[in-house]
Amino acid sequence: MAKSRYGLHINFIAGTVFGLCFGVFLSTWCRNKFIPCAPSFTRSGCCIENLQFNVNIEVEPADQNALKSSQAINNIFIEEADEKGFLFVGVMTAKKYLDSRAVSAYKTWARSINGKVVFFSSEGSTSKYDIPFVSLKNVDDSYPPQKKSFSMLKYMADHYLDKYEWFMRADDDAFVKGDLMEQFLRSVNSSKPQFIGQAGVGTKEEIGLLSLGNTDNYCMGGTGIVFSHETLRKIAPHLKYCVNNLYTTHEDVEIGRCVRQFAGIPCTWAFEMQKLFYQNFKEYRGSFIDTLQDKEVQTALTMHPIKDPSYQYRINNHFTSEKILALRQKEIELQREISDMNQLLNEQTKTMNKYGLRPSVTTFIPTKEKDVLGWEYVSTRSVSSHLNVNPRKGMNAFRKHALDNTVYQTMDIINKNSRQRGRTIDFKDVLYGYVQTDPLNGVSYILDILLTYRKHKGKTMNAPVRRHAYLHQTFTETEFIEDPLTLAQRDQLDSQMSPFTYKHLIGSKIPQAKLKETVHFIVPLAGKVREFDRFMKNYEDICLRTRENSQMHVVLFTKNSFPDEVEEILKIVGQYQKKYGGELLEVLEADGDFARAKALDLGAKQCSDDDLLFCVDVDILLTADSLNRIRLNTIQNVQIYYPIVFSQYDPDTLCNNKTLGSQCNVEPLDFSPRMGYWRQFGYGIAAMYRSDLEKVGGYDTSIQGWGKEDVDLFDKFVQNNITVFRAVDTGMIHVFHPIRCDVNLEPSQFQMCIGSKATCLASQQQLAEMVLQMKNVLDREVPSV
User: What is the pTM of this model?
Assistant: First the structure.
C-alpha cells in the first residue's frame, strides 16, 4: 500500500513538471510566430497578423550630414529588440525648438524615464546637440500638427509596438516625472486597451462644434497622452483613415476620436486625472515660477506648460533636491533608531554623533553670555532680528522659500495618514513665529499656524484651527566632492550644455575692450585736505602707477574751504600732474556753497555721452579689483551700478569699549560686524554712463548741501526702467570721519544726516556692552556670567 502511494506521488510530480515545460514551450512558440497565420486572420489564438500600413504618412531620417544621431537611434532600437522596455515617449517638437526645448527636456526629465524618449520633428530638421530625434518625411511645422501627431504614432507602431508596454505622446513644453509615471502605470494592466490622460470635451465655445457625442471625450494633448501597447495595436491599422477623415483642427480631439472608434474606449473619466496630468492655469505665463510648492504640482505626473526652456532645469533641480532631502531625512531617522536601540541595550558607541539625537528646541545650552543664541521674530512679510542694524526688515526671498519649504514638509508629515483617518488638514497661513539658527545643530522653529480641518468620513465638517508647531531642522554632515575632470574635459562638457544653461551659468566671454575702458572719477570736495591726500595716494596705487585707463575730475568748492586748504589741494594735484601727466587729472572750481548734486553735474559735463562715470567721495578707499567690477556691472542703456560699500565705525568708540580689550586696531580689510556695516541704504557711490544720466534728467542741482540728491537720482533710474544693479563690493571701504550736521539743512536732509551719524557710531552689540558698563545708568552691579 505504501509503495502504491509513493508511485502516485511520483506520477503526479512528473505530470506537473511536464505540463509546465509544455506551457512555456507553447508560449515561446506563439510569441516567435512559429505557427504562421492565415492572411484572412486578424487575431486568432496566439497568431497575430503582420498588417501592412500603406498610408501617405512616411518617416525618414533627417539630413545625413547633419544627423548622424538618427542612424544611432535605429541602431539602439535594433540592439534593444530582444528585451521589452517599459515606456516609450514620443515628444512632438519643431525645428526652431530642437536646440532649446528639446535639449532641455532631454537633459532633465527624459533621464528619469524607464524606457526611451525620442523627439519627432518636421522634414529636414537638424540639431547641433546629440539628442535622439526623428525627422518625419512630408511633415512640416504648421499648426495644428495633426499630420505630425499621426505620423509619430505610426512610427511608434511600426518600429516599437512589440518592444514596449506603454507609449506616451508628449509636448516639448511639458515636464514628465518618470519615477511617478512608472509607479502609476505599474498599477494598470497594459495588456488591455488603455487610453489615459486628462479628459476634455472642449471649451464652452466649442461645445457642439467638435462632433462629439454626449458621452464622448478626448485626452488633452498638452499634459500628455498614454496608450497601452494594446491600444496602439488596435488603432495602428486605421491611422491612415483617421488622418484622412478629420472633423476638427484639434489633433488631440482627432486622436481621441480614432481611439474611441477603433479601440472602443474613451479617455479616462476619473477626476484624479486632472491633478495627475496637471495643466497650470494659475500662472498666466506658465513655467511654474511661483507654484512649485503647491500640493497639486507635487503629486502631478506631468506638468504643462513650461514655455521657458531654462525652467526645465529649475524644475528638475527642485524635484531632485526634494529626493535628496527625503533620503537625508531617512538617514537621520535611521541614526535616531540606532540611538534608541543603544539606549535600550545600555550600550555606548564611540561612533554616536549629533544626528542620532531627537529634535529639540533646547539642544544647545550656552555656558557663556556671548554663546547665547537669539530668536528672530518672523511673519509672512517681515523679520525682526537682533542680527540686523535695522531690526525690522522685509522677508527676503531665500527666507520666504525656507519658511515655505518647512511648512510644506510639516503639512506632509501631518497628512501622511490622512486618507485612512478620513480627514485632511490644509495650511492657510503662518500668523507669526520665531526662528533660531544654531550653526552646529540646525534651525529651530516655533510657528503659530492657521489651519483648516476637513473631515470626510461620517459627519463632514470644516473648521479653522490654530496650532503651535515646534520644529527642528537638523543640518547634515558636510560632504566634500573632488572634481575628477580635467580642464579640457570641463571645456568639452561646457560645449555640450544647453545654450540656456550656458547663458545662465557660464555666461559669454568678456570683451577685452570692456576691461580696458576708461573710468572717469568725479570727486566733490570742500576742504578735507588730509582725506583728499589719503584718497590720492590710494588712487595713485591702483590707477596712476599701474597705468590704468582712468581720469580724475575734482570739483572744488572754494567758498567752503580756507585759502590755505585750497592752496594745499592744488599743490597735491599739481604734484601728481607733474609726475603722471596733466591730462589725467583736473580741478574744477565751483562757485557758491557746497552742493554735491551741483559738483557731480559739473564733473559729468566734462565727459562725452559714451564715457563711464564713477561718482565717489574722498572718504572711499578702493582696490584694483573694484575697477573691473565698475566696468563689468555698468552697461550703457541697460544697467547702472550702485555698489554696497563697507562703512567703518568710529575707532574712538571701538577703542574706548573696555570689553574689547586690545582688539581695537582698525584693519582696512576687516569686514567683521564689530568694525562696521554694509551701507545697504546708501546710493551716493554710483557708476553710470553720461548718456544714461542725461536720459533720466541728471542730478537735481536745486538740492543744496549734503544728501538727498542720490536718492532722487536713484528714483529717476527706477522710473525710467533702467536696471539698477546692487551688490556688496569688498573693494570699496568708507573710512570713518566725523559727521557734522548743519542745522540750516532742509529738514529731511538734516534728519538723514543725524541718522547716518548715529549709524556710524558703533554696532548695537557694542553700544549695549558700553551701556552695561555704565553703573550710573543702570544703577546696579553688572552681573557676572
Answer: 0.60
